[in-house]
Amino acid sequence: MLRPALSQLARRHFNRFRRSSMISSDSVQVTLGGLQVSVLIATFIYAISCFQAFLYWRSRFNDRLPLRILVWVVWLFETAHTTCFWIYIFTITVKYYGQPEEIDRRHWSLDASLAFHGLINCCVQSYYSWRVYVISGRMLIPILCWISLTLECFGAITDAVILYAIGPVAFTANWNLLPTLLITVDLSVGVVNTTSLCYYLYTRKTGVKS
Q1: CA angle, residues 104, 38, 124, in degrees to nearest 5
Q2: pLDDT by residue (tens digit) across 141-172?
Q3: Is the pTM of this model over 0.90?
Q4: Which of 6, 73, 144, 203 is geometrically suited to a Cys-Cys bond with 42, CB 3.0 to 4.6 A?
Q5: What's the CA gap between 40 and 72, in Å, rounded?
């Protein structure tokens, strides 16, 4: 749940850095520092997810094959997502050091990270929606969540393609609504899944009639 929030934070710092490149060097330093800190924290969380994946592999749970495949697919997406962010940070802060105007140019690594973020969230939240169905025996909430996640996944890929095609300047000016909608769907599905799981687990534990 933390990685999507950090990804959104990193993208907000990216937009601030792009605007601040035309304002002052002090603003650039502050916003770029925020972007670097966000990526460092996200990398730390990625390291934790790697450790969890290792423990899962070592424990050899008797889970069904689709679930085991899902674990490793999510880990691969997480690896690609984190790698893209580090490539972008290296490009801006090392390869083009001292050239703030570079932020206005398209970079495939940043664009690809948006697509991987959508894929990660779709996989993880789809599994939680499945757990809601298993616990509750009701399909309405999971179906609504799966539809929303499918739209978010395709929306994230579309977001990445458009950003790469037209560049960050035109994207920020004309396509701000799309990432806003994606973030809204992302958070909404997370809240619905979390609330539903808490409710159904509570009613099953206490014997309260649902």
Answers
A1: 105
A2: 999 999 999 999 999 999 899 988 888 777 87
A3: no
A4: 6
A5: 23
